[in-house]
Specification:
The structure is a single chain. The chain is globular, with a radius of gyration of 25 Å. It is an alpha+beta fold. It contains 13 helices and 19 strands. About 25% of the residues lie in helices and about 20% in strands. Helix 8 (about 330-345) packs across helix 10 (about 395-410), helix 10 (about 395-410) crosses helix 11 (about 440-455) and helix 10 (about 395-410) crosses helix 12. It folds into 2 domains: about 45-110 and about 130-270, no CATH class; about 300-555, no CATH class. The strands form 5 sheets. It has a 9-stranded antiparallel β-sheet with strand order 2-1-9-8-7-6-5-4-3. A 4-stranded mixed β-sheet has the order 10-12-11-13, with helices on both faces. Keywords: Signal.
């Protein structure tokens, strides 16, 4: 969006991820150059054979389920360069987003084999290989090759069986709380182009593959790029594990420091979302437990009518963005964010007509926006500001980024009310997302930036300016390399001028002290995916509670960087509260109370005023904070 990246960049990513379907895994002898060594001739036990039989059967079921879905797929790529102090830092980046119709992808028409590769030539399969995104390829900026993409989420979409592959037992292992058996896998035939070559983790309860990593067999003669990947799945329903994330990395063979040329992560979500049918808006719905009070309804004043019209536009956009899979389903975490927004208002003695709601945008770019009284923060903005510590570093960052959008709300910077007309948002989920100009004007952002400084002036919020100023200083140091991360999809960027790296809240930068990468007590910004996980079935976000990892050198900081995926896996549990149970159906009814990030109970904002009484600052997760004695 915001003119949505140039199509030439999308072509680069197509080649990048398509080529990744054909390499040999680093350290594995290349086919055609050396004689391939077989797996150790250790005989499998009956229990291991039985589990592999289950895995083969379950993988076929996963393929059937995936073919019925059209989830969102997002890929973020960072090209790296060596750095004398930090080993490596981002040199440039690319971001892609699209909705994938797996039924078309898995049709077999474009699946790479030994024979059709010879017929098409070295890179012939790149041509006409972008169709799986449907209508998105012209408007959005994600264009994968079907072969490369499918082979990183499915071990083998067509021939995963004992005739095609050989298996060798490695060990028993736990991934999170899930017990697994680990097997090495390699093609049984010398004609193995496009076949998986690596390792699988099979959970022992039902035989589902929950993780696999490695590469795909190829020859050095035809392919000079050697990528490998690590693909993870989530137990989204009973006995159903679906692809969630995969990490791709290319080593730099010319580097003496063992640096990488690029790192990429892909996330998949929105499996449960359905395309609304044409009859969806014509169905009568009976509201249970509601009394008809239409006779007692009051007349609406002109000001009330104007506010209702603005709210209708807000509700239309929020609902449509959720249906499209871009917004998270309502969750307890959103309530925590609403508590922080309520505190900003309460500490400034400001009342609003309607409560402020907060939702999470499930995409990578750093952005925020206000849709009427709904504040939306991108997942990566929340992740990278989640600095652990004993001084509420994370919460102070959240106060600052939420205050910026609160300033827009209280200054009356409205969403375009044309979205009060439902037809303005009727674009198909599996087609193109047309640009919805929900970002504010430069004039509005300048006004909001000045107001934000005022909102952060109360003593309870005084530390927020310095903490977020340090975050912005870190982002400024890398903004030229991270242009895609700083280009918003639908809302407001942190960056005012991409050429100079100046921020809307530039006034806060000087308050954060001097940025020093060598100071291990200073942690200005976190890597991506540091704080939130998402459920790929319900689209809810949940907080992670990682163990504290002390910084041993400046290389450990990795601000705004892609890092390998490592999920804490667990078996599916049926929802135990109403909010979780209704997430897939977009139930927005919240409870009367929730908890803060430390697990303490906090009151939800009263609906009558939209504000909350000042509360204790929401603490950062204790599991991620350093011990108090340090």
């Amino acid at each position: 969006m915001r003119n949505l990246r140039k199509s030439c960049i999308a072509g680069v990513a197509a080649i990048l991820l398509a080529t990744s379907a054909m390499p040999a895994m680093a350290g594995i002898p290349l086919l055609g150059k050396k004689k391939k060594e077989d797996l150790p001739a250790r005989k499998l036990t009956p229990a291991q054979i039985a589990l592999l039989d289950k895995a083969i059967a379950r993988e076929a079921e996963v393929i059937k389920v995936v073919q019925e879905r059209a989830p969102l797929v997002e890929t973020y790529i960072q090209n790296m360069k060596p750095d004398p102090a930090l080993l490596q830092i981002p040199a440039s980046d690319q971001h892609f987003l699209g909705r994938v119709d797996f039924k078309k992808v898995l049709s077999g028409d474009t699946y790479e084999t030994e024979d059709n590769h010879k017929a098409k030539g070295k890179l012939g399969f790149f041509k006409n290989s972008m169709s799986y995104i449907g209508g998105l390829n012209k408007q959005l900026h994600l264009q994968f090759n079907e072969v490369g993409f499918v082979q990183m989420i499915l071990v083998d979409a067509h021939s995963f069986d004992k005739n095609t592959y050989k298996f060798g037992f490695v060990r028993n292992d736990f991934l999170g709380s899930v017990p697994t058996m680990v097997f090495d896998v390699e093609p049984a035939s010398s004609k193995s182009r496009g076949r998986f070559f690596g390792r699988i983790w099979v959970e022992r309860r039902n035989g589902n593959i929950v993780r696999f990593n490695g590469s795909f067999a190829g020859s050095e003669k035809d392919f000079r790029e050697f990528y490998h990947f690590d693909s993870w799945r989530t137990n989204v329903q009973e006995n159903l594990w679906l692809p969630t994330s995969f990490y791709v990395e290319e080593s730099d063979p010319k580097s003496d420091e063992h640096t990488v040329k690029f790192k990429a992560v892909s996330n998949i979500w929105g499996y449960a979302l359905k395309v609304p049918t044409g009859d969806a808006e014509n169905v009568d719905v009976e509201v249970k437990g509601a009394d008809d009070v239409s006779a007692d309804a009051q007349d609406v004043s002109p000001l009330g009518a104007q506010r209702a019209w603005v709210q209708q536009a807000e509700d239309n956009v929020v609902t449509r963005l959720f249906q499209a899979g871009l917004l998270d389903a309502p969750s307890d975490f959103d309530k925590i964010m609403e508590q922080i927004a309520g505190n900003v208002l309460a500490y400034n003695n400001i009342q609003v007509a309607r409560p402020i709601r907060v939702r999470t945008l499930l995409t990578e770019p750093l952005e925020s926006l206000a849709i009427g009284n709904t504040i939306v923060l991108s997942k990566s903005l929340i992740d990278t500001t989640a600095v652990p510590g004993n001084a509420n570093e994370q919460v102070n960052n959240l106060y600052a980024i939420i205050a910026f959008q609160v300033a827009h709300i209280i200054q009356g910077h409205r969403l375009d009310t044309k979205y009060a007309f439902n037809d303005r948002l009727l674009f198909p989920d599996t087609s193109a997302f047309t640009r919805i100009p929900m970002h504010h004007t430069d004039h509005d952002n300048e006004e909001a930036a000045k107001k934000t400084v005022e909102l952060l002036s109360p003593k309870e919020l005084n530390d927020a300016s310095a903490q977020f100023g340090l975050y912005l200083a870190q982002l400024q140091a890398r903004s030229k390399a991270l242009t895609a991360l700083n280009e918003p999809m639908i809302g407001d960027s942190l960056v005012k001028d991409p050429k100079t790296g100046v921020f809307w809240l530039q006034a806060l930068v000087g308050k954060g002290g001097k940025l020093d990468m060598n100071d291990l007590k200073q942690n200005a910004a976190m890597p991506l995916a540091s704080f939130l996980r998402f459920d790929p079935w319900t689209d809810q976000v949940v907080q992670m509670h990682p163990a504290y990892e002390p910084l041993l050198s400046s290389r450990d900081k990795m601000p705004f960087e892609v890092t390998p995926v490592y999920l804490k896996l667990s078996y599916y549990k049926a929802p135990t509260n109403a909010l979780d149970a209704a997430a897939a159906a977009a139930a927005a009814a919240g409870a009367n109370a929730t908890t803060d990030a430390a697990g303490n109970a906090v009151a939800a904002p009263p609906a009558s005023t939209g504000t909350t009484a000042p509360a204790a600052p929401v603490a950062a997760p204790s599991a991620g904070a350093p011990p108090n004695n340090q």
